[in-house]
From TrEMBL:
<feature type="domain" description="HTH cro/C1-type">
    <location>
        <begin position="19"/>
        <end position="73"/>
    </location>
</feature>
<dbReference type="Pfam" id="PF01381">
    <property type="entry name" value="HTH_3"/>
</dbReference>
<protein>
    <submittedName>
        <fullName>Transcriptional regulator</fullName>
    </submittedName>
</protein>
<dbReference type="InterPro" id="IPR001387">
    <property type="entry name" value="Cro/C1-type_HTH"/>
</dbReference>
<dbReference type="InterPro" id="IPR010982">
    <property type="entry name" value="Lambda_DNA-bd_dom_sf"/>
</dbReference>
<dbReference type="GO" id="GO:0003677">
    <property type="term" value="F:DNA binding"/>
</dbReference>
Amino acid sequence: MAKLVEDAHPVDVYVGSRIKLRRTLLGISQERLGDALELTFQQVQKYERGSNRVSASKLYTISEVLDVPIAYFFDGYGGDARAEGLRDSSSPAFEHEQLSRKESIDLLKAYYEIEDSKVRRKVIEMIRVLAGTASEAGNG
């Protein structure tokens, strides 16, 4: 996980990472999001790093632009991200870290480009087999 911005509140860091995740999943550049919000791309960067707090009204606008409910930005937040348990693989923070990686985002984008739901299920089964979790392949 990227190093936390010193003195940034963990909620600001988490919300910023959720903004970045959604923006990236939609294929929107920081510049394009900034234009939609009447901000510079540098301000978007600061929001995404958590070094600047997002006001309630700006978060509302961001939720509209990124087409998600405001609750999306807090989903999975489990407390102080600086806590020792951050790297516990069962924690929401660890899960969010994994989902925020570029390779995870690329995989998700490619997965949802598969129109046939049966093929998508087969892809999941194949990945589970490759990962050594074939016993879970029937779940889901």
